[in-house]
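[Discussion] Sanity-checking designs against the backbone

I'm trying to build intuition for which residues belong where. Below is a structure token string of 202 positions. I'd appreciate it if someone posts a full sequence so I can compare it with mine line by line.
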């Protein structure tokens, strides 16, 4: 009798897990994996850009690249968590080779990448996930796109001021990756978590 009950519980749990996974189409799983790999590459690329900025004497820009890299790492981990929780398979690909230019060229490349994610990639992913009711996918995509908007603006300002960059401290929310130059007084404006979730990235 005990064996039958245990088997029944296992079956129910399996059915529940399958039901959770069924709310995500293969397209959304593919989009989550594309976002996961994209954020992995961005994290790696920005760390390389930070080293270049430091070597050229652009310490403030290097700080910005490291802050953005930390945010991309948070996005990557959020995407991974959603994939696995929904019963999907993580399709981890090798990191791309990083092309490193001057700090100005690296900032321009970063602006281009963030603008694509902000204007094209994530909005498309969000639309697909929302249409199928994949709320956790929508949430992780929305967290990422909000941060990409900030990154694009911060990179543009850094490029405009290059060589005479204003001193700034960068705060990154460890829940959603939101990147700001001032810690919120109470809650993160993106994920609504307490402001103590923010860390300083130097």
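Best answer:
Here's mine. Compare freely.
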């Amino acid at each position: 009798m005990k064996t039958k009950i245990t088997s029944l519980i296992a079956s129910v749990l399996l059915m529940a897990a399958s039901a959770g996974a069924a709310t995500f189409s293969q397209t959304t799983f593919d989009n989550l994996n594309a976002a996961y790999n994209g954020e992995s590459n961005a994290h790696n690329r920005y760390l390389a850009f930070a080293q270049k900025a430091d070597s050229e004497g652009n310490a403030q820009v290097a700080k910005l690249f490291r802050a953005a890299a930390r945010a991309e790492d948070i996005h990557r981990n959020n995407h991974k968590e959603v994939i696995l929780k929904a019963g999907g398979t993580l399709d981890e690909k090798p990191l791309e080779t990083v092309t490193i230019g001057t700090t100005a060229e690296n900032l321009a490349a970063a602006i281009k990448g963030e603008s694509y994610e902000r204007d094209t990639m994530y909005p498309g992913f969000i639309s697909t996930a929302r249409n199928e009711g994949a709320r956790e996918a929508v949430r992780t995509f929305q967290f990422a796109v909000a941060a990409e908007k900030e990154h694009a603006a911060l990179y543009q300002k850094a490029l405009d001021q290059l060589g005479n960059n204003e001193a700034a401290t960068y705060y990154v929310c460890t829940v959603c990756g939101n990147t700001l130059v001032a810690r919120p007084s109470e809650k993160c404006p993106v994920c609504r978590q307490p402001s103590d979730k923010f860390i300083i990235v130097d």
